[in-house]
Design goal:
alpha/beta; Rossmann fold; pyruvate-formate lyase- activating enzyme; OB fold (Dihydrolipoamide Acetyltransferase, E2P); five-stranded mixed β-barrel; 14 helices; binds iron/sulfur cluster
Length: 458
């Protein structure tokens, strides 16, 4: 093909796993239109930004990227996808006149038609309608990870958390049938995948439109598909988290013993202002039944610090909840007002320095908790799906444990994609380091005394 006629694209993705997976589906769709993926913005004829609106900073980053592109490469076609596209609509064309295409997250099915309109010479093409009652699925998804695959099971959200834009940007809940999900899993196994992650804004409110399976039953069915070694799921709204999910984890070894359960605040009064449908006590009861599992389930969470009106006492309740639960990981942020949300109008008088102090305090405390939890892993042997070379040291291999620890170890270059056992020798707050245990024998496991010596020295 004449290089001049070559159609190329690059997608930069912001935000959550749902956005990452949407970009994989958009990339697949673009390939069906004759576009080839390239490795950088510079090489691409059509540049897409898949945007995130969950915090102000993430949304503003897109406008800054668009500004740079306008100055450096005004000839490129530019598309904006995702939550900020949905939220800003035609305002994008005013703030960033180099944008040719704006597509909201409920309109991706219409992408082929919209891209052709841009190709035909239309300067400003937009679709932010939300009248589609299906999840966005394509026949071809260009998966970014070679061993771990995402599957959407539900999109949108019917809740009205006061800080969250998702119900406005992604629309109401739409679940895919469990049969469709299982067919996807079978296709992924045929393609060589052994780990899948079921995705949704709130997977716990999954409703099989054909009424065949509850969410817990779907988890069990996916875990039993021959060839599947690991199943993860996210995100779980605590209000819909039921004991049957823990029972499914107990019954199916392929279900990873890791649950992401965003608490947002440890104070019942803040939770009520946030319009979360649970109290601190109800949340802790859910944690208690997760803790009763014989499989030692790791729990991670999200926390919003300095939600409007948060008092010192309410903040301390968050700290005490974080200490009581002992999260393996926590994503925490200072509250930032988002358009269309109820909390946007709430009075917020707390000085910025105090907000930062609270966030730093919480993050320091969480860091200590993570360090302590990770130290408990020393001496244990964990199963690791090997991803590839470590980003920090190319002589080291890196992978993930079932509970989502990054595990580093030395081993042969042939291991990526395989499951191996690693005995843990050293720990940090987020990562573990260990020794590969050869599948045929345990000869290279260090005796316990040696392990102790190594861990005390680091
Ligand atoms: S449950 Fe609340 S925080 Fe989660 S997506 Fe829905 S509205 Fe947003």
């Amino acid at each position: 093909m004449n290089p001049k006629n070559r159609k190329t694209f690059y997608i930069e993705t912001f935000g959550c796993a749902m956005n990452v997976h949407d970009s994989e589906k958009v990339a697949g769709t673009l390939r069906t239109l004759g576009y080839e993926p390239v490795e950088s913005v510079e090489e691409a004829g059509f540049v897409f930004f898949n945007t995130c609106s969950i915090r102000e900073k993430a949304a503003e980053k897109v406008f800054s990227r668009l500004g740079v592109l306008r100055k450096t490469a005004p000839q490129k076609k530019v598309g904006v996808l995702g939550c900020v596209a949905q939220q800003e609509g035609t305002r994008f064309f005013k703030r960033a006149p180099n944008v040719n295409l704006v597509v909201g997250s409920a309109s991706y099915h219409n992408l082929p038609h919209l891209v052709r309109q841009v190709e035909a010479g239309l300067d400003q093409v937009i679709d932010t309608s939300q009248d589609d009652d299906h999840c966005f699925e394509t026949e071809i998804t260009q998966r970014l990870h070679p061993y771990r695959a995402y599957i959407t099971i539900i999109e949108g959200c019917n809740n009205v958390c006061a800080f969250c834009v998702v119900p406005f940007t992604r629309g109401p809940e739409r679940s895919r049938s469990s049969q469709q999900v299982l067919e996807d899993v079978l296709k992924l196994v045929d393609a060589g995948y052994t780990e899948v992650q079921l995705l949704g804004q709130n997977v716990n409110s999954y409703r099989d439109p054909l009424g065949r399976r509850t969410f817990a039953q779907l988890l069990g069915a996916v875990a039993e598909v021959p060839g599947i070694r690991r199943v993860r799921f996210a995100t779980s709204n605590p209000q819909n988290f039921v004991p049957e999910i823990v029972e499914a984890i107990d019954a199916h070894p392929a279900l990873c013993n890791a649950v992401h359960l965003p608490v947002q605040s440890g104070s019942s009064t803040v939770l009520s202002r946030m319009r979360r449908e649970y109290t601190r006590e109800e949340y802790l009861r859910k944690v208690a039944f997760i803790r009763r599992s014989p499989r030692e389930i790791a729990i991670s969470t999200d926390v919003i610090v300095a939600f409007p009106g948060e008092t010192e006492k309410e903040f301390e309740e968050t700290v005490s909840l974080v200490e009581a639960v002992g999260y393996q990981q926590m994503y925490s942020f200072i509250y930032s007002p988002r358009p269309n949300t109820a909390a946007q109008g709430f009075t917020d008088t707390l000085p910025a320095e105090e907000k930062s102090r609270r966030l730093a305090f919480l993050q320091n405390r969480q860091h200590e908790i993570q360090v302590t939890l990770a130290q408990r892993m020393i001496g244990r042997t964990v199963e690791v799906l090997v991803d590839g070379r470590s980003v920090k040291d190319e002589n080291t291999l890196s992978g993930r444990s079932a509970t989502n620890y990054v595990v580093n170890f030395n081993g042969p270059a042939s291991l990526p994609g395989q499951y191996v056992h690693v005995q843990i020798l050293r720990s940090g707050a987020n990562s573990l380091w260990g020794l590969l245990v050869e599948p045929e024998g345990r000869d290279n496991i260090l005796p316990d005394r040696t392990i102790e010596a190594i861990s005390m020295g680091t």
